[in-house]
Amino acid sequence: MFRVNTVGRFIRVSPYTVLSLKALCVRQQHTSSESADGYYGSLYPGHIPTTVLQKALLAVGSGVAALQNPYRHDMVAVLGETTGYPALIQLRNRMRDDPEGDIILTERPRIRLSTLDLNKMASLPDGSFGREYLRFLDDNKVTPDSRADVKFVDDEELAYVMQRYREVHDLLHTILGMPTNMLGEVAVKWFEAAQTGLPMCVLGATLGPLRLSSSRLGALFSSLGPWALQNGRGARCVLSIFYERRWEQSLEDLRGELGIQPPPLLGRASP
């Protein structure tokens, strides 16, 4: 049971509220006609059509759950999908205006264990993008398969843009040189907020510092934060890089191509 303080009063929000809302949407999943209230049928595999009201309820419920536990990636995902439509349009347009990004929108590559040649990546030299990404996965005990499929975006192309953002997140950790601890996650969220404008990223960048210790908060505001914001605003659209064709490229060269400065030393050394 969660308690949210709103104007001096506490509202109890059960974690099962979000699950109930999801179940409501699933019951409607097989409806294929458009109704007067703007409800649409499935647009892609796994799509769960929702009305504006349902999206609002899902956004509130998932937002509360994500605030309670930032590592609830399922709730963070729902929040991003139900609030990100305008930002996704802007990201899609940026990808279309970039020759490499346009190819990505056409070919729709996915970053999954089934699409990665792990043996080849392990044989690449230190400093190459593919080798450093594989090292990031190993060191942090994470896998690209942990990224959930998009369900609540009511546009097939925009759903892919959200999926691409989601699967590129760990690549950004590698490019930015950030670990998966809270300080590293907040620094990446500051970069992503400036780069994408997604409300989910802005919320994470705003509220994430509340969970940092005083020493890490000082590091964020004095060094990592300004670096992340500056590079997020100035970098090439990170969704417009066909990373699957860049494994052999050096990480240093890829950063230069994106217009991303190397991370502050504190960001690398922070536990």
Kindly name the structural category.
Answer: mainly alpha
- Uncertain spans: 1-39, 267-271
Ends apart, CA distance between termini: 32 Å
Evaluate the radius of gyration.
19 Å
Mean pLDDT: 84
State the shape: globular
How many domains make up the coordinates?
A: 2
Largest sheet composition? 2 strands, antiparallel
GO molecular function, one term: zinc ion binding
Family: Belongs to the COQ4 family.
Protein name: Ubiquinone biosynthesis protein COQ4 homolog, mitochondrial
Pfam families: Coq4 (PF05019)
List strands and helices in order, with pairings:
Blueprint: E1 2-6, E2 9-13, H1 15-27, H2 52-68, H3 73-83, H4 85-96, H5 99-107, H6 118-123, H7 129-140, H8 156-176, H9 182-196, H10 199-207, H11 214-234, H12 251-258, H13 265-269
Antiparallel strand pairs: 1-2
Helix pairs in contact: 1-2, 2-3, 4-5, 4-8, 7-8, 9-10, 9-11
EC number: 4.1.1.130
Keywords: Lyase, Membrane, Metal-binding, Mitochondrion, Mitochondrion inner membrane, Ubiquinone biosynthesis, Zinc
GO cellular component, one term: extrinsic component of mitochondrial inner membrane
Describe this protein with a few key phrases.
271 residues; 2 domains; two-stranded antiparallel ribbon; 13 helices; disordered N terminus
Structure in words:
With 271 residues, this protein is mainly α. It has two domains: 1-82, no CATH class; 84-271, no CATH class. It is built from 13 helices and two strands; from the N terminus they run ββααααααααααααα. The protein has helices at 15-27, 52-68, 73-83, 85-96, 99-107, 118-123, 129-140, 156-176, 182-196, 199-207, 214-234, 251-258, 265-269; strands at residues 2-6, 9-13. A two-stranded antiparallel sheet has the order 1-2. β1 (2-6) and β2 form a beta hairpin. Mean pLDDT is 84; it is low at 1-39 and 267-271. Pfam families: Coq4. GO terms for molecular function: 4-hydroxy-3-methoxy-5-polyprenylbenzoate decarboxylase activity; zinc ion binding. Pathway: Cofactor biosynthesis; ubiquinone biosynthesis.
